[in-house]
Amino acid sequence: MSTNALLRLNDLSIVFRTDRGLVRAVDSVTLQVDEGETLAIVGESGSGKSVTALSILQLLGEAGKIDRGQIMFADDDLTTFSESQMRNIRGNRISMIFQEPMTSLNPVIPVGKQVAEPLVLHRDMSWKDALTEAEALLRTVAIPDPRARLDEYPHQLSGGMRQRIMIAMALACQPKLIIADEPTTALDVTVQAQILALLKDLTHATGAALILITHDLGVVARYADRVAVMYAGRIVESASAMDLYAEPRHPYTQGLMSSIPSLDGVAGAELTTIDGQPPDLANLPVGCAFAPRCKYARQACNTTPQLTSITDHHHWACHGYE
Q: Which of 47, 86, 159, 205 lies deepest, with the highest CB count within 10 Å?
């Protein structure tokens, strides 16, 4: 473990109450985020990426609960915090950017007031001063004519501008950690690149750490320092972005990499896919959850592999294969 770790998840497991009983959405996840680092968490839908992020801010709802483990933020274990203590953390020391700003922003409150609100709540600013700061924040995230935008409502803005508003809100109180959950969903490719570059530049300028949740491995290659690959609620591989792209080791990671369309590919060639379907979390296979889809599966895969070191900075959860 690094000595400058800002966030550490230690053996974190999360369950949800459902009509089918308890479902373990996250199982024995251990990872860390260093100060100023960008960590990408990647995987298919349902792999546990967003649930892991939501648990950090205790936003699991009534059905979800942390079954075991620690969430260490600086020197505090957030799993022991009360709701009032967490309200002081959310939007202040840790901020989150959700994947669909139209459902995250309040449709009946002007965007200026929404950006200013964290400053009033956490910095004891007057509304006048907070709105002045909100205008400066909108200018920082490249919103045109920021003074006029303060009085507009979310439906009057484009998708890209709404996402910039969310970034401005996340940055308002200068948090130490920002969590971005699929921040470019439903945006066109050009706007995606602008939003991600803006987010990376602003977190670098402020020294904030960033957790970037995505299924887009192209995003990972360009913007992440380190990557954690999740499958069926567990981390199956983690490494620096450079090492992961140079030498993906886990069969699932290799499958994800192979499924990325290439501009150099043969015209008309079929896209590479991973056989099978993601597992049902309420009815996981015995042992390695990926084994039913893995061409290297063997007898040893009937036991669950633990995350082990390949090198000091590259880890995987696999029994190995020839």
A: 47
Alpha helix segments (H runs only) across 181-240 = 189-206, 217-223
Strand runs labelled E in 44-154 = 64-73, 76-77, 94-97
- Could you read off the pLDDT of 155-197 as tens digits, one per residue? 999 988 998 999 999 999 999 999 999 888 777 888 888 888 8
CA distance to 73, 79, 80, 274, per residue, from 67 (Å): 18, 10, 13, 31
Q: Are residues 183 and 137 in the same domain?
A: no
- Buried b / exposed e over 284-316, threshold 16 CB at 10 Å, is beebbbbbebbeebeeebeebbebeebeeebbb
Q: In this predicted model, what pLDDT tens digit does every residue of 17-63 receive, in sequence order?
A: 999 889 999 999 999 999 999 999 999 888 999 999 999 999 999 99
What's 59's domain CATH number?
3.40.50.300
Return the structure tokens found at 148. 């006029």
Shared domain for 231 and 167, answered yes or no, is no
In whole angstroms, give the CA distance from residue 146 to residue 209. Answer: 26
Residue 270 lies in a domain: no
The confidence score (pLDDT) of residue 273 equals 85
> Are 190 and 252 in a shared domain?
yes
Structural domain tally of the chain? 2
